[in-house]
Amino acid sequence: MHALTFTLLTLAGALLAGLVGALTGLGGGVVLVPLLTLGLGVDIRYAIGASLVCVIATSSGAAAAFVREGFTNIRIGMFLEIATTVGALLGTVLAAYVSSSALAVIFGIVLMFSAAQSMRQRVEHIAVTEPGTLGARLRLSSTYPVGGRIVSYGVEHVPTGFGLMFMAGILSALLGIGSGVVKVLALDRAMHLPYKVSTTTSNFMIGVTAAASAGVYLHRGYIDPVLVMPVVLGVLTGATLGARVLARVHVKPLRMLFTAIMVVLALEMLYQGLTKRI
Amino acid sequence: MNEPSAGNPHEDFALEQRLGTLLRGGVIVSAAVTLIGGIMHLAVHGNAPASYHTFRGEPETLRTVGGVIAGVLRGESIAIIQLGVLLLIATPIARVLISVIGFARERDWLYVGCSLLVLLLLFFSLAHGG
């Protein structure tokens, strides 16, 4: 295949990944890596490198809109980024010892889990920070806007959240994804933050986590500029379009379709990994 | 719920706004640089075969900040794309740096410490490759 044809195909794939990422709220990485490896035959290490760069792009691009609305909790984000960056650096060390086949299998499992999470009903909660807990000592409570009103919220189970974030960091580096699913799990399910605060704070953290491993992978030669170029531009365009669509139309049927695509990709990654084709 | 020790949401908010603007600007600039480098590259090498099936790793010059800058100064299109990538990697780092400054202005030393630690980890990764 010529470079130009390859670039255009990659651009189209990345556009789709960005669109799916925005509409499912999972970010582009979980779809991008399977598309590159399964669809275009790219070595999983190049795919992981390119995907991490996209994860940074979508995180920084979306954060601009989110922080303006006042949902992001920067204290919680910054405190937990200690866990995700340490996890990410450990993940890059582990990546050197894990075979491509094993990576594909782990990827399939995470993708399956992500698909299940995207279909889950969300529960809105307002937690109360108990005095004397880690959350109180770290002053993690804050406020967020709900329909014009400012609502206070607290935080629970900070150590559990910290541990999950460490896991999210490892997975992010190992698989080249934002690990948004694990991050939201930590913030929403473990620490009981309001859903909107969880997703935006998770997005805020994703870029920093990905930057930690992207630096290492740059040194290892995983980041190929000619591959990254269409991938980044495609994902950014797809994510921007996705955000527009999200604001306008009823997305439930689209979300169902994309979740089905993710399940198929997950099964294919598992199959290719288990049969050592990747 | 409203503990007296909670951070000042107004100052936090001003900081968040500055962060938001910075991030969007960083993404737009890096996407533009990447696009320019990409067009330059494809204009010359568009017919060359593309192969990412086997991992060979990038040449040394594309693996370090110094190497990329040297390549850009020589006018290499691939290095220009990689500069766009580096700018993109720099946006979250700048975000953490601004947080350090913001927390220092609020004299919130606990969070100055947290952000500085994250910043150190990021610099370590970019400078030494982990």
β content of chain A, as a range? under 5%
Q: How many whole angstroms does the radius of gyration of chain B measure?
A: 19 Å
- The sequence of SSEs of chain B as H and E is HHHH
The SSE string of chain A, one letter per element, is HHHHHHEEHHHHH
What characterizes the major β-sheet of chain A?
A: 2 strands, antiparallel
Q: What share of the residues of chain B lie within helices?
A: over 70%
Total of helices of chain A: 11
Question: How does the SSE layout of this entry go?
Answer:
The complex is a heterodimer of chains A (278) and B (130).
Chain A: H1 3-24, H2 29-40, H3 44-69, H4 74-95, H5 100-118, H6 134-137, E1 142-146, E2 149-153, H7 158-175, H8 180-190, H9 195-220, H10 225-248, H11 252-274
Antiparallel strand pairs in A: 1-2
Chain B: H1 9-45, H2 65-73, H3 77-105, H4 109-128
Helix pairs in contact in B: 1-3, 2-3, 3-4
Structural overview:
The complex is a heterodimer of chains A (278) and B (130). Chain A is mostly helical and 278 residues long. Chain A has one domain (3-274). Chain A is built from eleven helices and two strands; from the N terminus they run H-H-H-H-H-H-E-E-H-H-H-H-H. Chain A has a two-stranded antiparallel ribbon with strand order 1-2. Chain B has 130 residues and is mainly alpha-helical. Mean pLDDT of chain B is 86; it is low at 1-8.
Quick rundown:
The complex is a heterodimer of chains A (278) and B (130). In chain A, helix 4 (74-95) packs across helix 7 (158-175). Chain A has helices at residues 3-24, 29-40, 44-69, 74-95, 100-118, 134-137, 158-175, 180-190, 195-220, 225-248, 252-274; strands spanning 142-146, 149-153.
Keywords, separated by commas or semicolons:
heterodimer, A: 278 residues, B: 130 residues, mainly alpha, disordered N terminus
